[in-house]
Amino acid sequence: MTEIASIINFCTHDLRFLDRCIQGILPFSSQIIIPICDHFYNGKPEDPTLLQRIYAKYPSVDFIEFAYSEEEVYGTPSRLVAGAPGWAQHWHNSARLVGTYFLHDEIEYVLFLDVDEIFSKGFEIGEYDAIRFATYWYFKRADNAATIFPDGPLLVRREKLNPELLIDEDERCGMFQKIKGKKSQEYLEKGKPLVHHYSWVRTKDEMLAKVRSWGHHWERDWESLINQDEDFVRKYDYRKVEPFWDPLQEEVQLPDEKKVPLCRVTPKDIFRMGITQLIKD
Predict the structure, then answer these.
(1) Using one digit for the tens of pLDDT, what is the confidence trace for 120-155?
(2) pLDDT tens for residues 87-113?
(3) Cβ proximity of 113 and 107 under 8 Å
(4) Phi-psi bin for 162: left (phi > 0), alpha (psi -120 to 50), beta?
């Protein structure tokens, strides 16, 4: 059996997707890592009590809490300016980078996915060095699916990973383009995607929280677009489908119990771990 670690990008704005995301990858994941920043990427603090209850609900998941800082960033000595176009986007990459420092030794492949990307089943890797999975893309409703299948999660052979690749400004798309070797883009099984992407299937308040804190907040005036019924993100054409799952019907349940994360790290910690890894290699 191929040893796969799944690294999920997550914040508490996305809580309604978490349980289904974990259940989707659990059958084929030897390790699940969720790196989570102690702040949202607009600099506002996360909810520590809510996080601790999430940690308690999923004891088999390796939660890595990483510190937000406007003085230092992860993976590069470059100075990035808080609020500048590349700032919040770099924090998306930082989560993936941080996660790779906690991989078990036996891991052969790493799957990078966002928490609103839900796998319906496992897959065959074959001899690929990298795979980008095609997705069913939904907008505002779980029965409103795009007529095309855009790429989503990225699977990479572990030995192909390095810090420079992980902080590419074009994120997973840039990573895939720069990886050398045998690759598959828009991966389908029998002509159908294995992944359902619910990025914009949220309540209005959740959409507002998303656009105020995600890495693409600077690209458009998202708040003025949210009330539009048509796809203001990618301008896809849509068709009505039978829902695979409806996130808006999800009732989030968390224990009262609290738990600390597996580890808490800062940019300096990750720098030291990177140096140690270089010496070891």
Answers:
(1) 999 999 999 999 999 999 999 999 999 999 999 999
(2) 767 888 999 999 999 999 999 999 999
(3) no
(4) beta
CATH number of 4-280: 3.90.550
| Maximal C-alpha separation, the chain | 55
Least confident of 70-84, 166-180, 225-239: 70-84
SS3 string, 146-194, reads ECCCCEEEEEEEHHHCCHHHHCCCCHHHHHHHHCCCCEEEEECECCECC
**Could you tell me the sign of the dihedral formed by the alpha carbons of 193, 100, 22, 1, in that order?**
positive
Alpha-carbon span 104 to 233, nearest angstrom: 37
Distance, CA of 123 to CA of 48 (rounded, Å): 35
- Paired strand residues for 213: none
SS3 250: coil
Whether the CA torsion 234, 16, 202, 211 is positive or negative: it is negative
Q: What is the CA radius of gyration of the chain?
A: 18
Q: In the chain, what are the domain boundaries? A: 4-280
Strand spans (E) along the chain: 4-9, 31-37, 62-66, 109-114, 117-119, 130-139, 144-146, 151-157, 183-187, 195-200, 238-240, 263-265
Give the C-alpha separation, 26 to 45, whole Å: 29
Q: Answer for the pair 238, 147: CB distance below 8 angstroms, yes or no.
A: yes
Residues forming a β-bridge with 211? none
